[in-house]
Design brief:
Helices cover 96% and strands 0% of the residues. It is built from 2 helices and no strands.
C-alpha cells in the first residue's frame, strides 16, 4: 500500500514539475507575443500623438514669435514720443519759414 501511495505522490510531483517546466518554457514567448501585440495596437496612436504635438509646437512657436514682435513694436512706440516732438518742432519751423516767405512775396 505504501508503495502504491508513493507512486501516486511521485506521479503527481512529476506531473506538476512537467507542467511547471512547460509553463516556464513557453512563458517568455507568450510575454513577447503580448508585448508585440500591445506595440502593434498602441504604436499608430503614439505616432499620431507625436505628429499632433509637433504641429502644436510649431503653431505655438509661430504665435510666440508674433507676440514677441508685437511687444517689441509696442515698446518702440512708447519711445517714439521723442521723435514726434522733433517732427512737431520741424513742422512748426517749416510753417514759420513758409509764412515768412509768403510775407516777403506779399511785399513785392
Amino acid at each position: 500500500m505504501e508503495d502504491q501511495e508513493m507512486q501516486i505522490k511521485v506521479k503527481r510531483v512529476t506531473d506538476r514539475f512537467t507542467e511547471s517546466m512547460y509553463v516556464l518554457a513557453n512563458e517568455p514567448s507568450v510575454a513577447l507575443y503580448r508585448l508585440q501585440e500591445h506595440v502593434r495596437r498602441s504604436l499608430p496612436e503614439l505616432v499620431q500623438h507625436k505628429s499632433d504635438m509637433q504641429r502644436s509646437e510649431e503653431q505655438s512657436q509661430g504665435a510666440i514669435y508674433t507676440v514677441e514682435y508685437a511687444c517689441s513694436a509696442v515698446r518702440s512706440m512708447t519711445n517714439s514720443h521723442v521723435y514726434f516732438r522733433n517732427i512737431e518742432s520741424l513742422l512748426r519751423q517749416a510753417i514759420n519759414i513758409k509764412e515768412e516767405l509768403n510775407a516777403v512775396q506779399g511785399r513785392r
